[in-house]
Amino acid sequence: MWMPTEHEKYGVVLASFRATVPHGLSLEIGDTVQILEKCEGWYRGFILKNPNCKGIFPACYIHLKNANVKNKGQFETVIPTEDSVITEMTSTLRDWGTMWKQLYVKNEGDLFHRLWHVMNEILDLRRQVLVGHLTHDRMKDVKQHITARLDWGNEQLGLDLVPRKEFSMVDPDEISVTELYKLMEHRHRKKETPVQASTHHLFVQMKSLMCSNLGEELEVFFSLFDSKESRPISERFFVRLNKNGLPKSPEKTERQTTLFVDLGNNDLRKDVYITVHIIRIGRMGAGEKKNVNNVQYRRPFGCAVISVADLLTGDCKDDQILKVYTCNTENEWYQIHENIIRKLNARYNLTGSNTGLAVSLQLFHGDLEQIRREYMVLFTRGVAITKKLGFSDIIMPGEMRNDLYITLERGEFEKGGKSVARNIEITVYVLDGDGQLLKSYISAGSAEPPLSEFHSFVLYHNNSPRWSEPLKLPIPVDLFRGSHVRFEFRHCSTKEKGEKKLFGFSFVPLMQEDGRTLPDGTHELIVHKCEENANLQDSARYLKLPFSKAGLPGNNQAVKITKESFWITSFLCSTKLTQNGDMLDLLKWRAHPERIADSLSKLKEIDGSEIVKFLQDTLDTLFGILDENAQRFGLKVFDCLVHIINLLQDSKFQHFKPVMDTYIESHFAGTLSYRDLIKVLKWYVDRIIEAEHHDHIQQVLKAAEYIFKYIVQSRRLFSLATGGQNEEEFRCCIHELFMSIRFFLSQESKGSSPVTQTQAVFLKTFPAVYCELLKLFNIREVANFVRDTLGSLPAVTHVDCPLEAVKLQCIAKTVESQLYTNSESRCILLPVVLHHLNMHLQEQKDLVMCARILSSMFSLIKKDSTETSVTEEIDMIVESLLGILLRTILEITNRPQPAGTALRLQFQDVTGEFVACLLALLRQMTDKHYQQLLESFSNKDDLRDFLLQIFTVFRILIRQEMFPKDWTVMRLVTNNVIITTVLYLSDALRKNFLNEHFDYKVWDSYFYLSVIFINQPCLQLEMFSPSKKKKILEKYGDMRVMMGCEIFSMWQNLGEHKLNFIPAMIGPFLEVTLVPQPDLRNVMIPIFHDMMDWEQRRSGSFKQVEAKLIDKLDSLMSEGKGDETYRELFNSIIPLFGPYPSLLKKIERETWRESGISLIATVTRLMERLLDYRDCMKVGEVDGKKIGCTVSLLNFYKTELNKEEMYIRYIHKLYDLHLKAQNYTEAAYTLLLYDELLEWSERPLREFLNYPMQTEWQRKEYLHLTIIQNFDRGKCWENGIILCRELADQYETYYDYRNLSKMRMMEASLYDKIMDQQRLEPEFFRVGFYGKKFPFFLRNKEFVCRGHDYERLEAFQQRMLNEFPHAIAMQHVNQPDETIFQAEAQYLQIYAVSPIPDSQDVLQRDGVPDNIKSFYKVNHIWKFRYDRPFHKGAKDKENEFKSLWVERTTLTLVQSLPGISRWFEVEKREVVEMSPLENAIEVIENKNLQLRTLITQCQARQMQNINPLTMCLNGVIDAAVNGGLARYQEAFFIKDYIVNHPEDGEKIGRLRELMFEQAHILEYGLAVHEKFVPQDMRPLHKKLVDQFHLMKSSLGIQDFPAYVRASPIHFTNGSPRICRNSVPNAISPEGARLTSRRSPLSYPAVNRYSSSSLSSQASNEVSNITGQSESSDEVFNMQPSPSTSSLSSTHSASPNVTSSAPSSARGSPLLSDKQKHSRDNFCLSPRERPCSAIYPNQVEPTQRMLSHPPGENCLPRSDPNLAAPEKVNPTPSSWSLDSGKEANSQVTECVGKLVSPPVPPRPQHQGSPARNIRSLSPVATPRSPQKSSMQSFTPSPTECHTSGLVSNSPGLSGSYSSGISTLSRCSVSETSGAETQPSDHLLTTSVSSGSDELIRRENKTPPPYSVYERSNSRRPVPLPHSLSVPITTDPPALPPKPHQLRSNKLENDGKRCEQVSRPRPLPRKVSQL
Predict the structure, then answer these.
(1) Nearest CA-CA partner of 823 in 779, 793, 781, 853
(2) Which H helix or E strand runs over 232?
């Protein structure tokens, strides 16, 4: 039976458990579980991280832990009783674990590994804590280490800052807000600005000396040297090295490492150096032979120097190699280190190039004990401590030192009868008073044990040696008296004996007879002669002699005559001994009573370190004198006491305060001293006002704290001794003293007078007196003292008065004192504190101190304090400070932040502290407080001002910058206080500001606050980890929902006043509904219905609501707000929460439901697109998906919403995407959309996006130039030319000839680029996106995409799969069924399609270069084609051509390509079937076209070799011979077929014509081939000729029929020999002798053809006409192919023809490598071949050569600039397939047809150039102007004209034959005449309609950038007016002169040319942007 558990409540999973049993709960090792019930070895409960999932699990899998249970029962919560640090560690590590894995995924390897190490370290420390074997100190260190690591990890991972108190997390509810803020601030400051350590330590490790010629032992001395003061500042560190330069004792680390301790900040300057002196021990000279007696001397070797400051900047952990220098002369040795520092290079040089000292140097910062803990290993191994010379910056009490430092400075010695100077060595001994040697009291340096005797180094032959060698004598105090130091001088002989001969000595006693030690400084010692050691045995004999020349009596002639002297410098560092006689006199005052006054006077002159050394003795002396002689010496003793007390205020001696405190508590015995101290103190206070000099009085008041301590302690001792006698007298004295103090404090004075300064001094020390007074008075009495004293301060102060700041400091200390903590005394002090605070805050002065005081006040008040006293205090604070606090916060936050970092931090601190104080106050306020507050306002205006003020402050508190980003705890507390306060205040808002008292400003402020409250990032719980979210919900709930409900409630109360907030609040409320919180959305969405309803009532529609909703939705969703759920909810019919129906349901009940539902549908569709746009824009590079999505959104804004500003914004976003993807053509078309919205006017435009404020003309000019630049970069030069012309017209209109010239040059350069530069033709691909997983703008739609350069089908397919990585590629081309459409997946169907060009006028014209035609084949394409072969009926295995049909699919797009996107949606799909006969006609037609092209190119010498023609001829002839054409004969020429298909009679005749025509072309081609074939290919040519005859005979051709001979062979580009005269030249092989007009290097670009008709266009098929195999695959290969890919192994047929698979292999894998290249290239479709002479371009069969009328003069193309009479007609060829008559018969077919040149003409203008551009019907003009029927024209002054210009020159602009642009709207077939004209008007023009709409209907050349919808089956194409060309009946004239008036009619010889004004593509308003 399941029983609720009593004690088993909480546990940890020991092993993973799989829930295989019913109701089982799966567990993972480490999970924490809460147990609810138990039953026979099983528990029932849940995992804490997922409390909703409950189940059972075995009890043996759980380790139980102690826990506290809150709210026992159904909703109980369990809190483990373990250490809070352990709990935090556990939860934090769980959170880190998830994020740690994400670091690996994001490839943040460095942080990943560092965090891994820290996590392991924390786990290890956690184990140590859990074991529980740590000492208290060690536990503290471990916890500190843990919290430091936790904080580091949280900071690195961007987690929240955790407020802690003594290593444990604090509950914000358990402490006040101000205390919480202080904790957060402290941790934040600690994190940002670590505290700079004031103490530093230098670690030095000696590694080795690297030198090539050592061989002797060395002594190395390290020390710190201050070059600024030229003195050492530390003791020496001493290391002995062996002969190899390594430490002599490597096993003893303390002998080779040291720590220079207690370095101050001043010691880390640049001028402080580490100096290293090296002494060698060996022979006198480094190169001498070894002495026989092995006597060794200490001799100088070298010196090294490094600056301490270098260690701060560099990485000191690596070993450093110091260069070692030696002095040039030994006389300079004593200052070699200074010479090196000063870089006096002449005095030293390197000891050797390879000599170096290897040392390790490292700086440590902080207290020495801290260093010991952190670097425990260092101290465990052993390290020598090297102290500073003298005391450290801070002298600690209890520090015991007694060190005498002696430096052997220099000596002056006589030669002593020697011819050369002596080699002098000093031996130092320390002897006691009995002359006994004191052993081991001479230290040469740390790390080496002290010596009994010390030998100095020897300077060679030097009678004035300078050593400067320091020694330390650590002699105990008890041995100091009577001891002396003896210096013996010996001459070191360099002879063989090597003896050291004594010749003198000096000595110095350490203590004088009066007890003073040897004074610090330099001493000149007498050198006493002595040659025998025996003379020194008895020290008593020489101690009677004088030791110093300074102390010699004047009559001592015996000693004076000696010239030898020895100098030493001494320095005593002792805490027990003194050198000061005055100090000794004071301490021995009883021995000399007459000196007391003098000694007291001299006390102030004694050094402070001497006083603190004898502090207790000095104080005893002073109070002893006071007790015995108070009348005489009372004032002087008081002054001395003040001096000593103030001495302890110095930072150097402040640590001696505890010594004085201990003295007062334990040793002070002056029971009667309090009387004298009070008396003297009152005497000083009473003299303050009258005194002229206040310095001494101020010193007295500074010492007030300790004076009161002495007074209080003296009184207590007296009371204990007497049983409390004289109590009233004492109280009376104290009261009188405070009366005097209050009197002098109440004095008002101007500025910084001495009285004011004295008042300030007293106030600084006054708070320290409180604790002392409490020892004798009760707390209320002391509080009254303080209140009266502070209340006596002057109320009015001056601006520059220093008293103000000090007064606040005094109040701050009062509030922080024990006195204020007690509630009994606090109620006495609070009024005066509030009074002063209010005064300062009113004037906004000293805000930092005010904030500090307020923080301290509120930190005493806990959240749940319910004491009556606390309630009363809050009443007082609210009444006094709430209003001023709000005003202060407003003023502070509105000030500009200071520039300096320190000031800015202080500014933030002040703001934060005031905010914390306000929050603390509001959190303490109850219903009663709010009620009293609201009742306190006398009128509604005051209440209104208060509400506006507090709402504004709340908005400021919500700002992100108010607190650092990781202060989530503080933000949540702030929000909790805000929402609580708002709930209180909203009631006041309803009661006071509705109906007739409605105040819009207050309500607007309220709603605005509510909205930004809900939208705070710190409240978006969905962004947090589950554990963090759970904690917040448990503590605060979801505050967004609470505020949302409050908004809804307040909105419902507004009634008709709701109209005031429509449409202003639509955006803010919409922002709230976008928050992904279902309850909040359910509450807020119905408000929109309310808004629509009220707006409908007011204005009859809700256009304002709609407009605002749409505008705001775009900006909000682009910021990342909103989701798919929101879209569904907005459009949902599901009821919302509670009684409220859904938005749609509510709208459906209204009378305006249609427009309402329409709005909902529009908003929903907009959200679909915005969500798609946001998802596409999130990551990755620019791809088609991003561009397509942007186009979809742009079109939606234009067509459905008509939002011009949003439309323009997205135009520019799309433009930027195109530029990033380098889609320059698409970028130009995109920017053209904005350009189209502007006019050439001077209307000013505001600043918008990146455009400055400028006129509309200037912006349109800028856009034109930018678009031209992009067209240029995208190689779409034809479109750029049109814009150049339009811009040039504008410049000409404004007489801006400079820019006009530039524009004409730019236009010319574009023409040059058309002719000179190669352009690649892109591939086109049809892409179907099927499945519901695609975005809305792609879902179940098909598109045609323009591929990138060189991109083939396989590459494109891979790119699409990369863009949609989850998509599945469909392997067939059939239309998918409904199952695919509705699938929850992504399917891609991709295959290549062929473009169907619209610009047939240009493509059909002869003489137009391929460079020009190639543009029109792949630009402005609306339609695309795809062919699929199939067999209908029974398949004839003998001849498959009989049943081979082709299914041709034509796709029509919504916009032409290229345009504003690389892909556009398919709008219309048409499918037709081609019969086998039609298919055969097309195949042969295409092959004939290919042959013509190759022959023409060969004749024009456009091919570098003849191989392509050879291969083509060989393929056709060989296939025909082997039965290719015969198959067609068998299939279609047999009687059965003719009888069964009578309707195909004409087609059969056409096929027969084509077959004969092919033979005719082959015969001509063989003739051309014979002309150019190389010698080595002659056998092949002969074979081809033989096979051709076989082919003719197989076809039964003996001679060509008349209809074949009558049909001239037309060539696409025309033969260079052919001239347009009355007798056209026959095609002749000799024609190749003429030179082409074009450069032979300028090869045409690769052309592209489609197969939309049998008679007008060519296919891409380049395979043989007939196959050599009977298989169906090879038969398929003979079909027309628009595609570029191939599945065939022998031919390059289209995959669309041969297979349904979308991709395939290319080329012929069966060919050998040697043959593969030529065969593969030949088999490539024309799109795939390289553009060169080897693989020339195909031509269109419809591009026939137009013959000219008889008699027309025509020139060879090689010279287009000759005049007409000079041009010579070439002789017709003698061998021709044409006849003159037959050629003449073609004239009637060509008359009236228009020849379309490649580029548009110069427009003829009328009025504004921008408004009169029309489409132009092209005109074919005669070659000779004299014979033309055209009217004459007057050339423009800006252009030259030559009458003999050839009209079809493609490089000229503005000539007679300038035709229409690709962007013009003219069709050849529909604008040209069909009848022959009279002979004098052989060529005429048809006048186009003036209506653009008509032109658009009749013309299929689209504006590729248009985004307009199609409304009928024939596309009404809007004409983009910036790219259109004017309509004219005559060839366009050059521009008229600028001064001529551009009238509406232009006359030419009386004839009027009608110009019609151009209409807009669609009605629109001109852009205001």
Answers:
(1) 779
(2) strand 231-232
* Cβ proximity of 337 and 326 under 8 Å: no
Q: What is the mean pLDDT of residues 667-677?
A: 82
Nearest to 1052 by CA among 1109, 1097, 1016, 1094: 1094
Residue 1192, CA atoms < 13 Å, CB-side half-sphere: 26
Residues 1021, 1023: Cα–Cα separation, whole Å = 5
What digits encode the pLDDT tens for the residues 229-259? Answer: 888 999 999 999 998 889 888 888 778 899 9
In angstroms, the CA 470 to CA 238 distance is 12
Determine whether 1164 is exposed, middle or buried from the number of CB atoms within 10 Å of its CB (0-12, 13-18, 19+). middle
Quick one: tokens of 823?
Answer: 């509630």
Rounded CA separation 816/853 (Å): 8
For 106-147, what is each residue's pLDDT tens digit? 888 889 999 999 999 999 988 888 887 888 888 888 888 888
Q: What is the mean pLDDT of residues 1939-1951?
A: 38
CA gap 224, 231 in Å, rounded:
9
Question: pLDDT-derived band of residue 1733, with 50, 70 and 90 as boundaries?
Answer: very low
Q: Are strands 10-13 and 62-64 parallel, antiparallel or unpaired?
A: antiparallel
Sort residue 562 into left (φ over 0), alpha (ψ -120 to 50) or beta.
beta
Which of 1617, 1611, 1615, 1610 minimizes the C-alpha distance to 1756?
1617
> What distance in Å separates the CA atoms of residue 1304 and residue 1436, rounded to the nearest whole number?
65
Sign of the CA dihedral with 927 first, then 929, 934, and 936 last: positive
Please choose, from the candidates 154, 155, 153, 237, the residue with its C-alpha nearest in 3D space to the C-alpha of residue 202: 237
Please tell me the predicted confidence (pLDDT) of residue 563.
Answer: 79
Q: What is the spatial distance between Cα 1139 and Cα 1083, in angstroms, rounded to a whole number? A: 11
Cis geometry, peptide bond prior to residue 1803 (ω within 30 degrees of 0): no
Is the preceding peptide bond at 1458 cis, omega within 30 degrees of 0?
A: yes
Q: Do 486 and 428 touch, CB atoms closer than 8 A?
A: yes
Tokens 């002057």 belong to which residue?
794
Tell me the pLDDT tens digit for each residue of 267-281.
Answer: 887 788 999 999 999
φ, ψ (nearest 5 deg) of residue 1746 = -80, 120
- The gap from C-alpha 1786 to its chain's centroid, in whole angstroms, comes to 73
Structure tokens at 1750: 């008889």
DSSP per residue, 393-433 = SSPPTT---EEEEEEEEEEE----S-SS---EEEEEEEE-T
What is residue 388's three-state secondary structure? strand
What are the C-alpha distances in Å from 334 to residues 303, 340, 465, 468?
Answer: 11, 12, 9, 6
Query: Could you tell me if residue 257 is left (phi over 0), alpha (psi between -120 and 50 degrees) or otherwise beta?
Result: beta
Q: What share of the chain is helix, strand, coil (3-state, %, to 5)?
A: 45, 15, 40
Question: Dihedral of CA 337/340/341/344: which sign?
Answer: positive
pLDDT band of residue 1882 (cuts 50, 70, 90) is: very low
Structure tokens at 1714: 């040697």
Alpha carbons within 13 angstroms on the beta-carbon side of residue 1590 total 15
Integer-rounded Cα radius of gyration of the chain: 54
Give the per-residue pLDDT at 1678: 34
**Beta strand pairing call for 257-263 and 384-386:** parallel
Mean pLDDT, the chain, rounded, equals: 76
Question: Residues of the chain with pLDDT > 70: what percent?
Answer: 74
Give mean pLDDT, residues 348-361: 86
From the list 1433, 1422, 1428, 1423, the residue with the least C-alpha distance to 1375 is 1428
